[in-house]
Amino acid sequence: DAMVIQNPRYQVTQFGKPVTLSCSQTLNHNVMYWYQQKSSQAPKLLFHYYDKDFNNEADTPDNFQSRRPNTSFCFLDIRSPGLGDAAMYLCATSKGPKAGGLDEQFFGPGTRLTVL
Amino acid sequence: DAKTTQPNSMESNEEEPVHLPCNHSTISGTDYIHWYRQLPSQGPEYVIHGLTSNVNNRMASLAIAEDRKSSTLILHRATLRDAAVYYCILIRARGQGAQKLVFGQGTRLTINP
């Protein structure tokens, strides 16, 4: 029944060591999003893919990159993690604007990243 | 997108109704009012949305003020499982492009047994 799957659920990396977080979906949705949620804060959008088109938020650091090799999968790459990048990373999907007034986003359970 | 203002926290008792307020005084005519909630250790989930008229679904009701400058999410009989952070988000209808969620701080709802 899982619709948005994130692996791993917990990831530990070392300061400066590249890390990749994975997201997959079984909903065949057009849009995939990555959010960062630091402790006791609200989720913050990093970027999203609309089909193959990548859309970066203006304040997303260059250290964060993303890949979407096909409809089902999307990856978040952190090139050189710093201590400040420790957070929960949430993946979400949606159908896109064809849904009209509602474009409900479906979230995965998140990957909690620890940077040592 | 226009901003929303919510109380930081609210508390209620199990099986009682809960009214979660949201102010959005700068809302524009094409802004939809969306509510998401985030249960502990989970990703957010959609609750309800509306434009002008009050809305009901299996999870909650949404009451929208006539001038649309405020709205209230109503949980008719709160259960312990409703303890979560509730986010009120305005989303401007666009003909194309994804609808991006801009989360404010939300309201942390505590339900007492």
Describe the structure.
The complex is a heterodimer of chains A (116) and B (113). Chain A is an all-beta fold. Chain A contains no helices and eleven strands. Chain B is mainly β and 113 residues long. In chain B, 0% of the residues lie in helices and 46% in strands. Chain B has a five-stranded mixed β-sheet, with no helix packed on it. Chain B is globular. The model of chain B has no long low-confidence stretch (mean pLDDT 93).
List keywords for this structure.
heterodimer, A: 116 residues, 7-stranded mixed β-sheet, 4-stranded antiparallel β-sheet, 11 strands, B: 113 residues, mainly beta, 5-stranded mixed β-sheet
Which structural class do the helices and strands of chain B define? mainly beta
Strand content of chain A: over 45%
- Alpha plus pi helix count of chain B: 0
Strand order of the largest sheet of chain B: 1-9-8-3-4
Low-confidence stretches of chain B: none
Q: What's the number of extended β-strand segments of chain B? A: 9
Mean pLDDT of chain B: 93
Order of SSEs of chain B: EEEEEEEEE
Q: Taking all residues together, what is the mean pLDDT of chain A?
A: 93
Distance between the termini of chain B: 38 Å
Largest sheet of chain B: 5 strands, mixed
Helix proportion of residues of chain A, in percent? under 10%
**Structure classification of chain A:** mainly beta
The SSE order of chain A reads: EEEEEEEEEEE
Shape of chain B: globular
Percentage of residues in helical conformation of chain B:
under 10%
Low-pLDDT stretches of chain A: none
Radius of gyration of chain A, Cα only, in angstroms? 14 Å
Number of helices of chain A: 0
Short description:
The complex is a heterodimer of chains A (116) and B (113). By secondary structure, chain A is mainly β.
Describe how the helices and strands are arranged.
The complex is a heterodimer of chains A (116) and B (113).
Chain A: E1 4-7, E2 10-13, E3 19-25, E4 31-37, E5 44-50, E6 53-56, E7 64-67, E8 73-78, E9 87-94, E10 106-107, E11 111-115
Parallel strand pairs in A: 2-11
Antiparallel strand pairs in A: 1-3, 3-8, 4-5, 4-9, 5-6, 7-8, 9-10, 9-11
Chain B: E1 9-13, E2 18-23, E3 31-38, E4 45-50, E5 55-56, E6 61-64, E7 70-75, E8 84-92, E9 107-112
Parallel strand pairs in B: 1-9
Antiparallel strand pairs in B: 2-7, 3-4, 3-8, 5-6, 6-7, 8-9
